[in-house]
Design goal:
Length: about 725
Amino acid sequence: MIEGLSPTPETPLALMLQFVIAVLAGISGQVVAAFFNVPSIVFLLIFGILLGGDGLDWLHPQSLGLGLEVIVALSVALILFEGGLNLELRQLSTVSGSLRNLVTLGTLITLLGGGMAAHWLGEFPWAIAFLYAALVVVTGPTVISPLMKQVQVDRQVSSLLEGEGVLIDPVGAILAVVVLDVILNGNAAPLSVASGLLLRLGIGGGIGALGGWLLGQFLKQAKFLSEGQKNLVVLAGVWGLFGLAQSIRSESGLMTVVLAGLVLRASSIPDERLLRRFKEQLTILAVSILFVLLAADLSLASLFALGWGAGLTVLALMFIVRPLNVAVCTWNSGLNWRQKLFMCWVAPRGIVSASVASLFAILLTQRGISGGEAIKALVFLTILSTVFLQGLTARWVAEWLDITSKQATGAVIVGCNPLSLLIGRMFQERGESVVLIDTDLAACKLAEQEGLRAIASSALDTDVLEQAGLGRVGTFLALTSNGQVNQVLAQRAAEEFQPPRVLAVVPGDLSQESEPVAIATSAASSSTPSPTSPKVQPAFVSKMPLKTWNRYLDDRDVRLGETVLQEPILVEQQVHLATLIADGKLMPLLVERDGQLQVASTEVLQEGDRLLYLWHNPKSKMLKRLGGSNPNARLMPERIAEVETLPQPSVEIEQLLSKSIAAAPVAEEVEGDRPDSTVPDAVPDATPDAISSEPQSETPQAAADALTSGITPEDVSEASVS
């Protein structure tokens, strides 16, 4: 044991070191979990056990005394408030029936099933068995929410699981308190048990709803406060409401903070996203400290002392009680069997179960009632089993069931212009839903004439995006003529709705300075997101000449082409396509990969990809009339000879292609490191003679980098000059 960390002398230094070690271990667990992309609770539990009495013996949570209970109470209140603040009522409305059943009927099924399993398999007395069942009724947002972000299942399933985790936590905790009261005070009448449960829920819900509304109204009027001060006002208000409810009726504060978060989210306060980020950071800190402290206080000997019956109890809870719960509560829902099966598998327990079980163990021991430590050990065994088995395998199960959001289809496109109408029609012809959004009513009517659904409103309004169904589609595309607006819209869509693919067009033929951005929201007025943000990809090419290609479409000077990339000539095709893009003759639109249609971006094309593109095919008006061109005829994909026929490379280009194949690892260039250049109106065809006779600019290579990842501008210049 390190000197100064002994639990005996409760000096200020010793207590400070205990808290510092807990913080360091908790944040380290978060960092390691993020590196390995696994639920953070896995490493928080491991680090806590390693630092506890059965490990390095550095952490002794009991030395904190009553301070541990205070830390647990305030931290759980903050965690549940953040969970309620992140819940979106509009999303929950789509699964409201199933969610209501899970929180009410599902709670009863888990209580009865878990109690019988603990009694018959774990050989616990009935009272202790039902206390265990009440403790593991909850699932918990501290595990579910990060897990859903990592797994990225479809929106309906994630909303239902997150809603269950937040709303069932206070219900389960209050239910556990009621069961504990029955154990401590002897046999109680069923009416008093039910009244105690409803009274706590009613008091907590009333204080939370009223307090959340008052807090929201104050934040709307308090324009004299800075953003940081508003965040602290909310923190003080949450703990104040929690303390008020707890002083009126014990454990009613949990429902208070959940309802306060829900009401505050519905109030649409200014700078809401900044508030959620602040509360998320505090929640991560609270979860990190709590799990480390509670795991450090766990005795491994008590886990092994439970015997095989405890393991069978946990397995019964996971493989019998949970599937029965989901089957009954989602009987008449619109969920398919794949979604229901995933919900059966994912129900990890979290911080509320651990914290309440630790407090109950202390209370039962103080009252001289046996079973307190056994209950705590069994609850932690349930947490460890569900987190490690379900949390670590959730991604594989979701991919096996094919319910990840990456498989989501459909698109929401902002901007009604010729290019967006073409892309929308191509998605719709594959049976995928498409919604266009534009503030121009005439443009929306034109889209509706094309058979596309259009909403005449601002995409900066999240209600409009929700109405468009952004939470259920696979692609969001910002395709207006203003690049800054596109970037802001895409970043906001990525943060608010997390669609699998978010793309923004950055026009290369418009002056951004001449088109000021007028955005009437404080969130959008913050720093402009980078087009190379990990959540937002540039659509089509890095600098899209949107105005030019829209004019081509209006003038019918384009053909819709398709080509498939093949392994024997993959690199040659990539270079050829990049050259045509740089010459302004070809614009990639969509890529069909693994049977799924995606908007083309700067990602490298792969073998087997089917590329749909626009080919600039200028014709004079006389030729159009003589050829009988129909202005209303729809473009249909076709093979274009100029694209399918690859030019014969010179010796230097052959060496360059060989070099690109052998290059490893691939070097990535930063867009800002390349000198900006302008594509000329007419570039000679990329024939061997042209390549060898005159040097090429680096602009064609800028497009080639988006398709071939091993060729540099210097290589092209050297090969061209030689």
